[in-house]
Amino acid sequence: MELAFIPSPSTGVIHLGPIPLRGYAFCIILGVFIAVWLGNKRWIARGGKPGTVADIAVWAVPFGLVGGRLYHVVTDYQLYFVEGRNWVDAFKIWEGGLGIWGAIALGAVGAWIGCRRRGIPLPAWADALAPGIALAQAAGRWGNWFNQELYGRETDLPWALEISDGPNRIAGTYHPTFLYESLWCIGVALLVIWADRRFKLGHGRAFALYVAAYCAGRGWIEYMRVDDAHHILGLRLNVWTAIVVFVLAVVYFVLSAKLRPGRETVVEPERSLPEGPAKTAEAGPTDAKAEPEAEADPASEPAEDAAGSKKL
């Protein structure tokens, strides 16, 4: 007998008049705002300028969305490109389907472009964003709850997730893996914030810590899921991805600590003032050297007569 369970919403869309508000999209947008807000606070604390994080996010977010969707479509191509499926569904991002691996990879490309345009080191910017990205993932996972997807094995635990009957799913109570991952991501964010304050992480090591910690949790959470996925040597593809990315993050952390210890002292260099009239005007009249007065020519002075009066 089930004593309690987590109910799933009857629909993932709320209509505000003629405007549909999709729960999945709302969670993604909320996560972006959280990441930018926290990243901006951390960037300013590191000596950066207000607004820089948002300016670079304008490049990173679109790239990340495209990368996340590409990873999902490529790794789950059978959902879109086999007989009986409609390939147009691959563009329906609001129905769910964003791979965090592709989102981070291509999002980093967008961030690199934005950082290069501002003359900012990408690792420093990534360190500032790391805990915010983890919190963004925590918020974004609730989009899976709205869509009733990516749940785990059947269970009768009090916190089991109730799933209703529908396409590609059977009614029952299952492990709420979306909730497990959301809570794990919150823990990762707190870990990165604590470690960054305690050890003054720099040169991308805070971001590497976030990646490694997330992958450690994603591995066991992915192992609990029952949705269709490709398997390699008995393990789901995303489990292998988590293992490989975890190792790369740890290697980067260790090598970075040896090659570039400490933290960046300047994360956003001041731009030099342009040469020209502005520089001259800045000096002002008080800085100009006075012209030396011409020496008086005795011959040009009117001669004085014996009475002392000048001859005009």
TrEMBL record:
GO molecular function, one term: glycosyltransferase activity
Transcription as UniProt keyword: no
Nucleotide-binding keyword on record: no
Main location: membrane
UniProt EC number: 2.5.1.145
Residues of the signal peptide: none
Bias (Acidic residues) ranges: 293-304
Lineage: superkingdom: Bacteria
Location in or out of the cell: Cell membrane
PANTHER family: PHOSPHATIDYLGLYCEROL--PROLIPOPROTEIN DIACYLGLYCERYL TRANSFERASE, PROLIPOPROTEIN DIACYLGLYCERYL TRANSFERASE
Family, as annotated: Belongs to the Lgt family.
Protein name: Phosphatidylglycerol--prolipoprotein diacylglyceryl transferase
Lineage: Bacteria, Bacillati, Actinomycetota, Actinomycetes, Kitasatosporales
